[in-house]
Specification:
- Chain A is mainly α.
- Chain A is built from 14 helices and 2 strands.
- The radius of gyration of chain A is 23 Å and the shape is globular.
- With 251 residues, chain B is α/β, with parallel strands linked by helices.
- Chain B has a single domain, classed as 3-Layer(aba) Sandwich (Rossmann fold), CATH 3.40.50.300.
- In chain B, strand 7, helix 7 and strand 8 form a beta-alpha-beta unit.
- The chains are: A mainly alpha (345), B alpha/beta (251).
- Chains A and B meet through helix 7, helix 8, helix 9, helix 10 and helix 14 of A and helix 2, helix 3, helix 4, helix 5 and helix 6 of B.
């Protein structure tokens, strides 16, 4: 918990300093793609790592966010400061609707049905020409006015910091969620559904909360993407984004917050370095995934996946616990139990 | 406090439980006993909502809770343990009990993020720690649950069930795998709990010494039917019970 928090803080601080060292368009572009990927991976990880289900159609939320921002900007002329948060909100609402249907299913059924949702949305985007301009997509999405006349590298710098703010916000929200009372309950559901229910946890409610959060983060990523690329087409619902998300989460370590960050950095760099291999790139990607699953099943950051909740006694407060303590009840001593009665015999 | 009326459950052609009735009053420990396959666990699953009954009703504190989902029963204070284990292996002893305070913590998403949940979280942690001390696992507070001994695990299970803040605590074979001495101590803890932490307790148990020592009232099941009920002394001397456990004496 502490390690994870410090790791994330250090990562954000480091990322804030990167432009000082690498101030050129190419490096900043890579940086922006990393920020975008961190958001995507964090979003998927909330579901894979904390609900324990595998939404193969997670691009639905990314795509909805991207289209929302694109349409709000291109059709209604809203500025970027509104479109990106609205993209998150629209995605969260659709997350509520899609989650309410899909979270009643588990395992392979959940996988298939979420995939169907993404596929349906892709078909809608492709065919509802009046709204989405069909396969042509929505183009000419406005950049923020403040950088309208700026040079390429300055624009990139603006997007880099915007991405950093959004990614940091996504991580903060996830962190607060994961280490809260409801986050703990979500982990309990993931670990053992029946035990969770026996102590009053409603698995569906927790799944839905997590789903909505993940959708909101995915939507933010989509909105950011739309403005940065300034074009959105039906391929945002496609499978290639899904594959990258999966690799980032699995390689980094699902069920940890630092994992997807590490995974996102790794995947973006790999994509760049493997560019020389052209079509072989995806085969190499595939091999890496196979390797990770076999040799590091819990991912690169898997070692922090285990939650080690600990309690530090505060001497002055030890008597103030809210629960009545029965001092007369004979306390069981674990040591005595271990020796199986030797102490009293 | 709990009133079970004509409860029946049929799995296909198998009548796992037929027409079982009993009731538990406040301050009472009731035990459900019977040979293997008598329907004890089925009965618990019906009471706590993990199975839906084929017939009959379950009333709890003047609520009809028949067929209510398990989490809803638990939220009303009807909390159970499982025969296998209700401990989350990946967490520490403290983490387990803390998770089980869920019902007492912040459950709204909005307030988790925006209203200071910190104070409540701290209180939750203190309460969880106090519960662990109550069952005597204080020394193992920050140990991983999967490195506990069998006896300690049973204690942790009790702490976990207490963590959910039960009014009626239902324990499914809490003494399984414990030796006589360990079981005696568990019995003492259970009796203490009814005085201080829970209003009543329903126990399913094979360890007769424990059952006889703690129960106010015993119900005996055999082949899904209730064959006897009464105080420990009455049950022990009931000929039907003796037959169910030991068979008919040779004529």
């Amino acid at each position: 918990m502490k390690f994870e928090r410090n790791f994330l803080l250090a990562a954000v601080a480091l990322a804030a300093l990167v432009p000082l060292a690498a101030y050129n368009e190419y490096a900043l572009h890579i940086g922006i793609m990393i920020m975008f990927s961190v958001m995507l991976a964090t979003s998927l990880n909330l579901i894979v790592g904390y609900v324990g289900e595998f939404p193969l159609g997670h691009t639905a939320f990314f795509g909805i966010g991207a289209y929302s921002a694109a349409l709000l900007s291109a059709r209604l002329g809203l500025p970027i400061y509104f479109t990106i948060p609205l993209a998150g909100i629209v995605a969260a609402i659709s997350g509520l609707a899609i989650g309410a249907v899909t979270l009643r299913l588990r395992g392979p059924f959940f996988v298939i049905v979420t995939l169907c949702f993404a596929e349906v949305l892709r078909l809608v985007a492709n065919n509802w020409i009046d709204l989405t301009n069909g396969p042509m997509g929505v183009s000419g999405i406005a950049k923020p006015p403040s950088i309208a006349g700026a040079s390429g590298v300055q624009q990139k710098l603006w997007f880099y910091y915007a991405g950093l703010v959004l990614a940091a916000a996504s991580l903060l929200v996830s962190y607060r969620f994961v280490y809260s009372n409801i986050g703990r309950a979500a982990v309990a559901v993931r670990e053992n559904r029946f035990v969770a229910q026996s102590i009053g946890i409603w698995p569906f409610y927790l799944g839905l909360i997590t789903f909505v959060l993940a959708a909101a983060v995915g939507g933010l990523a989509g909105g950011f993407y739309a403005h940065y690329i300034s074009y959105v087409g039906p391929e945002v619902f496609g499978f290639s984004f899904m594959i990258t998300m999966i690799i980032m989460v699995l390689a980094g370590g699902k069920g940890t917050l630092a994992g997807p960050v590490v995974g996102a950095v790794l995947v973006v760099f790999l994509e760049e370095y493997l560019r020389d291999f052209k079509d072989l790139r995806f085969s190499i990607f595939g091999l890496i995934v196979v390797g990770v699953v076999i040799f590091l099943p819990r991912g690169l950051m898997g070692f922090i996946g285990r939650r080690h909740e600990s309690y530090e006694r505060r001497p002055a407060e030890s008597a103030k616990g809210g629960v009545k303590r029965d001092r007369r009840a004979p306390a069981l001593e674990p040591a005595g139990l271990n020796r199986g009665g030797a102490a009293d015999a | 406090m709990l009133e079970v009326n004509g409860l029946s459950k049929q799995f296909g052609g198998l009548k796992a439980l037929s027409d079982v009735s009993f009731s538990i009053r406040k301050g009472e420990i009731m035990s459900l006993i019977g040979p293997n396959g008598a329907g004890k666990t089925t009965c618990l699953n019906l009471v706590t909502g993990f199975f839906k009954p084929s017939a009959g009703s379950v009333r709890y504190c003047d609520y009809d809770i028949t067929g209510l989902p398990p989490y809803a029963a638990a939220q009303r204070g009807l909390v159970r343990t499982f025969q296998k284990t209700n401990v989350l292996r990946g967490l520490t002893v403290f983490g387990n009990v803390l998770t089980d305070r869920y019902r007492h913590g912040e459950r709204s998403l909005w307030r988790t993020f925006f209203a200071g949940g910190v104070q409540r979280e701290r209180q939750l942690r203190d309460e969880a720690a106090a519960l662990i001390e109550t069952v005597g696992l204080g020394a193992r507070m920050n140990t991983d649950a999967d490195s506990l001994s069998c006896g300690e695990l049973r204690l942790l299970e009790v702490a976990v069930a207490l963590g959910a803040g039960p009014r009626l605590l239902i324990l499914d074979e809490p003494a399984a795998g414990l030796n006589t001495h360990e079981a005696d101590r568990l019995g003492d803890v259970l009796k203490g709990l009814v005085k201080e932490h829970v209003e009543a307790m329903l126990l399913v148990e094979h360890n007769m010494a424990l059952v006889m020592a703690v129960s106010d009232h015993i119900v005996v099941l055999d082949f899904g039917r209730k064959i006897a009920a009464g105080t420990p002394l009455e049950v022990r001397t009931n000929p039907d019970v003796v037959t169910a456990y030991l068979g008919k004496p040779a004529a």
